[in-house]
Design goal:
By secondary structure, the chain is an all-alpha fold. The protein is built from 22 helices and no strands. 65% of the residues lie in helices and 0% in strands. The two termini are 37 Å apart. This is Tetratricopeptide repeat protein.
Length: 463
């Protein structure tokens, strides 16, 4: 769909009310779960709807929106009717030919006779990009049959990437993040790399439109960060570092401070985990410099927490406290329209969890456990991986503070989540807790946890 003649969706903006795009996106995801629909809605999707870029939602989103606003039609929600945007006639009237690759699965291309795909957000258009990897990732993560991988170039010969390719790339990023939230990184990393290679192929080809090129650079950079995070969370630190550096280079080439801040943010987190706390501090400070004019207090809060984690690793309690105070002050300013879409995970629960990690590194495990309990209690059930992570962190904090019974109970809850969450980080934390609790094996709760943990350690993991 052309983007130079779009009309903002004022009706949808009114329905959002006082909520930020990120908060409203979370409400959309919750509504989807209430009716059994799985939609990967985030702040960028809400921005695109309100800007009029998405003229008509796909069927899944339509069902969710109708559930949220009973009695409203698509036009009441500010959308065009499905008939006005569907099929070859509507596309010919807009004079916007599709920019889609041939499907390796034999599916008809978008707009072919008999295909009733309707919008930029249609499942068929998403699949066109995601056959390069993320559709197979989805199937793998939920245990469905594998999807064939595409080795072909992402666009047809002689054609340059367009807005459809950029939209599909952005959707691939959302989908990978959604799957990571629910299942963890281990099952996703290898396959997600296919999508990343396809994304950089699009950049190499280059779009005619500067606006589309900007979207492709931003999308490829965000995808590099997402794949880097999957490597990071599954213990592949060198590969994660490479992906984050690739994202940073992309940000610098595109003069994109938001992408630069995100790349430095993740680099700081990785440096802390890899035992390079001084580098973590420098990267977090560079991220804050990049983000200073972006208008997102919540982003600055997260970056201050990354800096605090670095100072905790250095052992500088005073500098850590100062960074934590800045993080809390910025977080208290509340959400804003300028908050990046990738920050949908950053809630009060995450704030508590990251502060807990700082106190644990500083050796105050009792204070760490108090903050981690809060993180577990506040976490959105949508983020299954984070529930497992925080609970594993709680078990470790309790074990270190001498509360063996409570640590064993928390550890047992994590073992129960390992069937859903495949994260090397969580498994490593659980293994460390089991080691710390072995001297207390005479305790019935501890013995039960150790037995269950040993059983999971002997069970082969599937990728």
């Amino acid at each position: 769909m052309a983007t130079d003649d779009v009309t903002p969706n004022a009706a949808f903006r009114r329905l959002r009310g006082h909520r930020s795009p990120g908060e409203f996106a979370a409400a959309v995801r919750r509504a989807g779960r209430e009716i059994g629909e799985q939609v990967s809605c985030d702040a960028r999707y809400i921005h695109r709807v309100e800007a009029g870029v998405i003229r008509c939602p796909n069927y899944a989103y339509e069902r969710v929106f109708r559930h949220m606003f009973p009695g409203y039609s698509l036009t009441d929600l500010g959308f065009a009717t499905r008939e006005s945007v569907r099929g070859r006639g509507a596309r010919a009237a807009r004079n916007t030919p599709p920019v889609l690759p041939a499907s390796p699965t034999g599916a008809r291309p978008y707009g072919a006779p008999g295909n009733d795909s309707t919008t930029e957000e249609s499942d068929v258009q998403r699949r066109a990009f995601m056959t390069g990897g993320s559709a197979a990732v989805a199937a793998l993560a939920v245990g469905a049959a594998a999807v064939p991988q595409a080795a072909a170039a992402p666009t047809a010969k002689g054609r340059r990437p367009g807005a459809t390719d950029a939209a599909a790339l952005e959707e691939a990023v959302r989908r990978i993040r959604l799957l990571d939230d629910r299942h963890g990184a281990d099952a996703l990393y290898e396959k997600a790399g296919h999508s990343l290679r396809a994304a950089f192929s699009l950049l190499d080809e280059g779009a005619r439109s500067r606006h589309v090129n900007d979207r492709l650079h931003a999308g490829a950079g965000e995808l590099a960060i997402s794949v880097g995070w999957l490597a990071h969370d599954s213990g592949r630190f060198a590969e994660a570092r490479s992906h984050y550096a690739e994202a940073l280079a992309t940000a610098r080439m595109a003069a994109d401070p938001a992408l630069e801040a995100h790349a430095f943010c993740n680099t700081a987190f990785l440096a802390r985990d890899a035992g390079r706390p001084h580098e973590a501090v420098r990267a977090a400070q560079a991220a804050q410099q990049a983000a200073r004019h972006l208008g997102s207090a919540r982003l600055l809060a997260l970056l201050a927490l990354r800096e605090a984690g670095g100072w905790a690793g250095v052992g500088d309690r005073a500098a850590c406290r100062e960074a934590l105070a800045r993080a809390k002050a910025d977080f208290a300013k509340g959400p804003a329209d300028a908050d990046p879409e990738w920050m949908s995970f950053f809630s009060e629960a995450e704030l508590a969890g990251l502060e807990a990690q700082c106190w644990a590194m500083l050796g105050d495990h009792t204070k760490a456990a108090a903050h981690t309990r809060r993180a577990v209690a506040l976490q959105d059930p949508h983020f299954t991986r984070n529930i497992a992570l925080y609970t594993a962190q709680l078990a470790a904090d309790l074990a270190a503070s001498g509360a063996a019974d409570e640590a064993a109970d928390a550890g047992t809850r994590v073992v129960g989540l390992l069937g859903q969450v495949k994260s090397s980080r969580v498994r490593a934390m659980l293994k460390s807790t089991a080691h710390a609790l072995r001297p207390h094996a005479a305790n019935a709760s501890v013995a039960g946890f150790l037995e269950r943990h040993q059983a999971t350690a002997l069970t082969p993991r599937t990728a």
